[in-house]
Design brief:
Order of helices and strands: EHEHEHEHHEHEHHEEHEEEHEHEHEEHH
Oligomer: single chain
Shape: globular
CATH topology of the largest domain: TIM Barrel
Structural class: alpha/beta
Strand order of the largest sheet: 7-8-6-5-4-3-2-1-9
Number of domains: 2
Number of strands: 15
CATH class of the largest domain: Alpha Beta
CATH superfamily of the largest domain: Aldolase class I
Largest sheet: 9 strands, mixed
Number of helices: 14
Radius of gyration: 20 Å
């Protein structure tokens, strides 16, 4: 079954590590943006009934409760098997959590990134570990027990000890799902641009080296597995039955349609995306030309992200990576080895 992605690019502040098309946008743009979202959704010729809905951004948890209801009302299939709201810790109240549940939200993804105050301060985030714990309790009290915690390995000043502290909080909160991302350094984020310029702002000079970040990741894999939170995709870990139904669609090449600024869509044969800037989207919710998907290449570089791997036989590129210790065979299936996970981009590039 297919899914729906809704982009809400508004944020209270732009985090130093963020390379998404989101940020601090004019307050006056919010209402017209919601109107544009509703119009785009209403104009859709639904070929299937959505099974999952995912609100990302940006910070969709900032959306007014009434606006949220209005947007979700336009999407068929309610109640959905899974409806996820991305949320920034620090603003989740009992009233807001209850409104989300009534609107159909049954899963919340918390952009925690770290539970260590000195690390958070350098990213621009304002929450604390205690705030996260309090808001997890609020979600559970509202009947939303399915939640994800995002962590970033490689933040400025991060150490093996502080990384262990964040993982200890994950265990304490008994999180059913955890996402662990290794810090991306590129010119699209303030921190990344500063690192590439060999600068010092935003803690750029204190980013752990690649070997340390790899060790943080491997520590997370082991610690989370011991908690019963197993890796099922390179960056995603879950207790049995709590895997993200929506995100699995991306890696399994199942259809999804995106609404809002910079939202992407895939119908099984073609891919397309909306205009990137929120202001441009409000003026004209146009999208790019549909481009044919690459079934073979995508099957490799998306499917190999999953811990289960993919079924394949007789491919020389696969055999080369097996010989190099980056892929391993299990019957007819191949998957990344632990070393291959850390060098996954090198593997994926061969299939793009």
């Amino acid at each position: 079954m297919a899914g729906v992605y809704i982009s809400y690019p508004f944020c209270a502040q732009k985090c130093t590590y963020c390379n998404f098309a989101s940020g601090v946008l004019p307050e006056a743009l919010r209402a017209p943006y919601v109107d544009a979202l509703r119009a785009e959704i209403r104009s859709t010729d639904w070929k299937w009934t959505p099974e999952t809905v995912y609100l990302g951004g940006g910070t969709p948890s900032q959306m007014d409760a009434g606006a949220l209801v209005d947007v979700l009302r336009e999407i068929p299939g309610s109640p959905w098997v899974e409806a996820t709201m991305e949320a920034a810790p620090g603003g989740i109240t009992p009233e807001k959590a209850e409104a989300w549940r009534r609107a159909g939200i049954n899963r919340v993804s918390l952009g925690v990134q770290s539970f260590v105050q000195r690390e958070l301060a350098r990213t621009g985030r304002k929450h604390t570990a205690e705030i996260v714990a309090s808001e997890v309790a609020v979600l559970r009290a509202a009947g939303i027990a399915n939640f994800n915690i995002d962590l970033i390995a490689g933040l400025p000043g991060q150490s093996a000890e502080s990384w262990g502290e964040s993982l200890a909080w994950v265990e304490r909160l008994e999180a059913p799902h955890v996402s662990v991302y290794m810090l991306e350094v590129d010119e699209d984020s303030r921190l990344g641009a500063e690192v590439l310029a060999l600068g010092k702002r935003y803690g750029a000079g204190d980013i752990p080296n690649d070997d340390a970040i790899a060790e943080f990741y491997e520590t997370a894999v082991a610690r989370l597995a011991a908690m019963g939170v197993a890796r099922y995709e390179i960056s995603n870990f879950a207790r049995p039955g709590f895997e993200s139904r929506h995100n699995l669609k991306y890696w399994l090449r199942e259809p999804y349609v995106g609404f809002g600024a910079d939202a992407h869509s895939f119908d099984g044969e073609y891919r397309w995306s909306n205009v990137e800037a929120a202001a441009d989207y409000v003026k004209c919710a146009g999208h790019s030309e549909r481009t044919p998907a690459d079934p073979l290449g995508e099957r490799f570089f998306l499917g190999l992200r999953l811990d289960r791997g993919i079924e394949v036989t007789g491919d020389e590129t696969i055999r080369r990576f097996v010989r190099e210790g980056l892929l391993e065979e299990d019957g007819l299936r191949v998957r990344l080895t632990p070393r291959g996970v850390l060098l996954s981009n090198e593997v994926f590039e061969a299939f793009v």
